[in-house]
Design a protein that fits this description.
The chain has 6 helices and 10 strands; from the N terminus they run βββααβαββαβαβαββ. By secondary structure, the chain is of the alpha/beta class.
Length: 221
């Protein structure tokens, strides 16, 4: 088992970390400050193995079932956008269906994915909305990545995150979500509350909206 006293939380940087769960493959640690549950870095896949796993996915742009799934994030975010809003689909994957849905609704969307759309220049622009659909759980450094995205939002912008949330240790033990070897960061509602509070404390109010069992929206200003 990984010794928690040697670990730092990848979201808040805290060193107060406790064991949360262990299975035959990995350990899961819990941060006392932000309550992120995470897999220690030594147990992450290599980037080559991670890419190989993603290549197995079959998320087609024209798949009605996949689009219904994405509607859980698309619908509440779309309701809050103003005309001509410009977005970024962060972690778009090989089939950026969510970006296509927003483009069909009249919003231009830039794409970024470290494997499938690796043009990092798009991360230097400013956006009215940024989406992370089934992405947050893959982030090895969620604090660094989410802070950068927050600074890329204009005042009045929205960050939309779809990721299944941690409920409690008992549910975690049998949770199918942890069987995916590319899932390494697990957020709870409390974690998102902490994140919004920290951003607010830094000077720009952050409004957290829990829009579903696996969707949160965070408004800037």
């Amino acid at each position: 088992m990984t010794e928690p006293q040697n670990q730092t939380c990848p979201l808040c940087g805290g060193t107060g970390v406790d064991p949360y769960h262990s299975d035959k493959v990995r350990d899961y640690l819990n941060c006392r400050t932000c309550h992120l549950v995470f897999v220690p870095p030594a147990q992450h896949l290599t980037m080559v193995d991670e890419k190989d796993y993603y290549d197995l996915h079959d998320n087609r742009l024209d798949d009605p079932g996949y689009r219904r799934f994405l509607n859980r994030l698309f619908t509440p975010l779309n309701e809050r956008l103003t005309p001509n809003a410009r977005g970024l689909d962060f972690g778009c994957g090989p089939g950026p269906a969510l970006a296509k849905m927003f483009e069909e609704a009249g919003y231009p969307v830039a794409l970024y994915d470290p494997f499938y759309a690796p043009d990092r220049s798009v991360l230097s622009a400013q956006y009215d909305f940024i989406t992370l659909s089934e992405v947050a759980e893959h982030l090895a450094e969620p604090g660094r990545e989410l802070n950068r995205l927050w600074t890329s939002l204009v005042p009045g912008g929205w960050l939309g995150i779809m990721s299944k949330r941690v409920r409690n240790p008992d549910a975690f033990r049998t949770w199918h979500y942890i069987t995916d070897p590319t899932h390494i960061s697990f957020f709870s509602e409390t974690t998102f509350q902490w994140l919004a509070a920290r951003w607010s404390a830094e000077g720009t109010p952050a409004t957290l909206i829990v829009a579903g069992s696996d969707v949160v929206l965070i408004g800037k200003g």
